[in-house]
Amino acid sequence: MANGIGFFEKYLSVWVFFCIVFGILLGNFIPEIPRYLSEITVSQVNLPIAVLVWFMIYPMMVKIDFSAVKNLGKSHLVKGLSLTWIVNWLIKPFSMFLIAYFFLVTVFSQYFGLLPLELAKEYVAGAILLGAAPCTAMVFVWSHLSKGDPFYTLLQVSTNDLIILLAFAPIVGFLMGLSNIPVPYDTLILSVVLFVVIPLIFGYYSRKYVLKNKGKKWFENIFIPKLNNISIFGLLLTLILLFSFQGDLILNNPLYIVLIAIPLIIQTYFIFGVSYIWGFKWKLPHNVCAPASFIGASNFFELAVAVAISLFGIESGAALATTVGVLVEVPVMLSLVKIANQTKNRFKL
């Protein structure tokens, strides 16, 4: 250990880079493996990815102390929830639309002529789908890596999932100028069950069992550190799978991938900056401010990809844009985790 940071966490950026490269090579030279794994889906949710996400989420879930429910009315929790609701639903979808439209349509298509106009508009549609759904699963990982409050993280994910049910379709419909947006609710509900409900139940009962049979000291000093390594392995294996699924796409469309990625990356840093600075000025503790900022910066990409395919087709520009959102999210979010960890001492404890 060094400064409380494990070996894998200390060199996480290195492992991420190698896993991305390995995933792309795997997808191009042994495509049968990722092709088979990519087809194991239920309601357009990939089950191998879901299993790996469980490995990432479980360490966060097992840390949740439900006796903290009595603190639900504390001002920093109320402020944190207010922050995430306002940013995720009143700022993020509209800033995503404006940033994506400016770069993809105005700059890259109309000014530089790098994109056909209709294709640029399809990419904007995909960006809108990403911007209208805050993260459900991976935010637990980012919160875990920044030592965020597990109870608060669960609370904000749960409330935002409820808001998605009501707000996603109207917001997307308004920004796209469409009257009817078919939302695959089976995908939405299954994602919530897989990435929130199941790991939460498993975490609750395993925490209870370990504390009862091994004691709090063993739980905190031995059990949790072992789980942290499992979480990192889950993240790295997820990266290999995600990039192996899209290896040919990345190599065959390098320019379009870069053009789509630019506004998505700018949007991610912008939303994180708004939330993080707001939380700091509002005197939120770091373990609430960090996860409150991560949930808006990252996206519910399972839902976005599913809706893009159902609306525009699997070969559409919108589907490609949501896929690029998946590809850029992990490296960008890891950089934001690093920023959050490096600025932690600026917050009042």
UniProtKB/TrEMBL annotation:
The chain crosses the membrane at residues 12-30, 42-62, 83-103, 123-142, 162-181, 187-206, 227-245, 257-280, 292-312, 318-340. The keyword Amino-acid biosynthesis does not apply. Its main location: membrane. Keywords: Cell membrane, Membrane, Transmembrane, Transmembrane helix, Transport. It is a multi-pass membrane protein. InterPro entries: Arsenical-R_Acr3, BilAc:Na_symport/Acr3, Na+/solute_symporter_sf. Pfam families: SBF. One of its GO terms (molecular function) is antimonite transmembrane transporter activity. Coiled coil: none annotated. It comes from the Archaea. It is found in: Cell membrane. One of its GO terms (cellular component) is plasma membrane. Belongs to the arsenical resistance-3 (ACR3) (TC 2.A.59) family. PANTHER family: ARSENICAL-RESISTANCE PROTEIN 3, ARSENITE EFFLUX TRANSPORTER. This is ACR3 family arsenite transporter. It comes from Methanococcus maripaludis.
